[in-house]
C-alpha cells in the first residue's frame, strides 16, 4: 500500500493506532493548539471524525483544497481521512470532539442526514449555542466516570449535538456547504466504497451492484444529495488524491498517475488539466510558491 504523502496521526502529534469502535475524546482547544503556537499543520486521521466547536476567536480552516475563514460561534466539521490544517488567533476558545466512524454510525442509526454532515466537512456559523454548550459539558462529564448506562448517555448526547448541527445547516446562508437532503445514507455508503476502490477505477455498475441498487437509482441519489453524478464524484476523488500527492510528495507526475490507476501518463495529465484547470506540473509549482 502506498504511503500517504501527508502526516497521519491518531490525535494530532500522536502516532497512528487503531481507535475503538466507540472511541470519543474531548479536549479544550488550547490544550493542543497553544503548544503549537495556535497553528495545526495539514494532516489527516484515518478513521476519526472531528468537530471543533468555537466559542471565541477566529481563524482559518484548510480542508483539502479549500481555505475557509471562520469566526466564533461556529462549528468546524472534518470527516475522517480529510487532510486539514488550522490556524487560530491567539487565545481562541473552544472544544474539540474526536470520535470514531463506528460511534458516528451507531449514533446516526437510520437518520442518514446525520451521516451526511460529514460528507464534505466545512464551517458552520451558529446562531444559538446554549444547548450545544450544555451538551458538550455533559459529554465531558460522562467521559470522566464510569456510571451505569454511560454508553447510552454518551450516544444520546452525541445525537443531540449532531441533530442541532443538522438544524443549523438548514438555516445556513450557504446550504450547499453540507449534505442535508435526498438519499444521504446511500450516498454515504457509495463514498465509503469509493474510498476502498477508487484506485481501481471500476465502472458505476460495480458500485451499484455492491450497494444493491440500479445505476439509475444511484445516480438519482447522488444528484439529489450532491448535485453531481456518481461518475463526477469518482473523478473528484481521483483529482483530490492527485492534488494531495502533487502537494505533499516528491513522486513524479507519471508515478502519481500510475498509482491512481491510469495506464497512460498522458491520459492522467489530460484528466487532471481538464478538471483542475492547470497541468499537474503547473499545479505543483503553484503549491510550492
Order of adjacent strands in the largest pleated sheet: 1-8-3-6-9
Distance between the termini: 30 Å
CATH architectural group of the largest domain? Sandwich
Tally of DSSP β-strands: 9
- State mean pLDDT (0 to 100 scale): 85
The CATH homologous superfamily of the largest domain is termed Regulatory protein AraC
Main beta sheet strand tally, sense and closure: 5 strands, antiparallel
- Our count of helices gives 12
Please report which band the strand proportion falls in: under 5%, 5-15%, 15-25%, 25-35%, 35-45% or over 45%: 15-25%
Shape: globular
Helix-strand topology string:
EHEEEEEEEHHEHHHHHHHHH
CATH class of the largest domain: Mainly Beta
- The low-confidence runs, each spanning 5 or more residues with pLDDT under 50, are 173-182
Helix content: 40-55%
Q: Any chance you could write out the topology, listing elements then pairs?
A:
Elements: E1 24-28, H1 29-33, E2 39-43, E3 48-56, E4 58-63, E5 66-71, E6 74-78, E7 84-88, E8 93-100, H2 101-108, H3 112-116, E9 122-125, H4 130-142, H5 150-171, H6 184-197, H7 204-211, H8 215-226, H9 230-248, H10 253-259, H11 265-276, H12 280-288
Antiparallel strand pairs: 1-8, 2-7, 3-6, 3-8, 4-5, 4-7, 6-9
Helix pairs in contact: 2-5, 4-5, 6-8, 9-12, 10-11
